[in-house]
# Entry
Amino acid sequence: MSFRMLVVLTVASLATTTTGCGTKPKQYSLKGQVLDISTSGEVIVRHEDIPGFMPAMTMPYKVRDPSVLQEVQPGDLIAAELMVAKNGNYWLEGVRITDQGGRKTAKPAMATHVLKIGDKAPDLPLINQDGKTFRLSDFKGKALLITFVYTRCPMPTFCPRLSSQFAKIHEHLAKTPDDYNKTHLLTISFDPKYDTPAVLRRYGLAYLDNDATGFSQWDFATTNATDLRALADAFGLTYFEEDNQISHSMDIVLITPEGSVARYWSTDWTTAELEDALRQQSRAAASAPSASAEGMKR
# Structure
């Protein structure tokens, strides 16, 4: 399985150990076992409690030193320093292998086919906050921005932060009716057992200032476990449930008005960047000459 995307909001470039404002990140001791290693520079670690920061869980982490990815293997026990920047970014430094005994029993990850830019997005059925079944193809002609969360997420810098950023995009788009009508936002739940349409409606209203008319441009959706796994695999996501919580990677996907993948984001994005890309995609499609018009020119 691809672990290309992260649930943690890591920085794109780790050339320094300071944030953009010059503040040094906080440092925590991490101990755990490596479950997998991605091809894009992350280690998936099942770690112990991190006192003062988070309970034991399984998370993907960026590492500052790329040589670490050549040294560690699934099954290794490691110790490291978890660096936490003030802006919510996370990464590991000083990774040390403390025990290699688990390598022989570690299970290899299953490979999945992640959609490339230009590939058609899967057209699986989803159910929105109003109980209505729909498909991604229903948004043909609109630029579509998709992300994945779950409503019980306890980490304020993860799912709630992402939903808050989508809420800002929705608010900004509403001020320009042309763009608003040619774009759509979609939040899909990782937690179909708990996140029923009714739960998603309450959750969505909290980010729409209790204005249900906002659902016309922003859907909150669930699906069955099989189709959710197919969507996650297609977009390079990983998720699994542990101790009534869901450990998951983070992914934002931009879909063109024609229904193909236009762009991915995992860590290095801003709200303004997402909004601008969504607007540009919708405007590019609107300004493109139609096939009939091209035929007349010829």
About this structure: The radius of gyration is 20 Å.
